[in-house]
Amino acid sequence: MSDHHGHHLARMTTEEAAAAVRSSPVVILPAGAFEQHGPGLPLATDTLRAEHVAAEAATALGGLAVVGPALPVGVSPHHLAFSGTVTLTTTTFAAVTREYTHSLYRHGWRKILVLTGHGGNGPALATVAQDLLTTHEDLQFAWTPLTPLAAHVVAAMGVSEVHGHSGEAETAQMLHVAPDLVHTARLTPGSTATAALDPLARLSRRPGHPSLTVRYDRLSLNGVLGDPTTATADQGRAVIDAAVSRLTTYITDWTAV
To answer: The whole model's pTM is what?
Structure first.
């Protein structure tokens, strides 16, 4: 992995941060979660992936963006049946995001992008984006989930019919980003087919229909959606590289507006 330290606000002095406002107009805030990721992946999986992609993107952008402080705990009440999960309410997560943004805005940044490795943060981030339109009219606030940036790569992996959390794509990314934290001998398939889900869980996974939120212990006995045993580090590198490429292209175009 390349050296990203020069692009992290956390490693800058206050004078260097003041200079970065002018030279690096975009701040990327990695957001994640502190939640179960099945028997083989660590609780910080979503944060670790977001931090890695944010750092790679900042490096690829050559200083056009800096990486701000992470949001390491997200909105995860649907995982609370599994040990170790820590969650914020949507209200608290949104408030923390707004206060991070307000601090950065006060120092002069006008382009903030939240990169979330945890899909459960999405609804709160959408609310924050709407609120900021009225409270900070000259601020441009963007956000994106991580893995969907590389949806075409994931689709080519041959994932299970039911897949996602702790499944093929997330495990592949972790095998590339932090292989020392992946317990490969403990990787176990979870729910892989719609037919195996109970009727309510099946309804919650029906595409193109109303959104229904259910607890993950209803979706999967071990908290896994998909078959992580098929994942490889090479697949993970392809997902990460595609996400970084999509993100850097967007930020380059954004700064030109």
So the answer is: 0.96
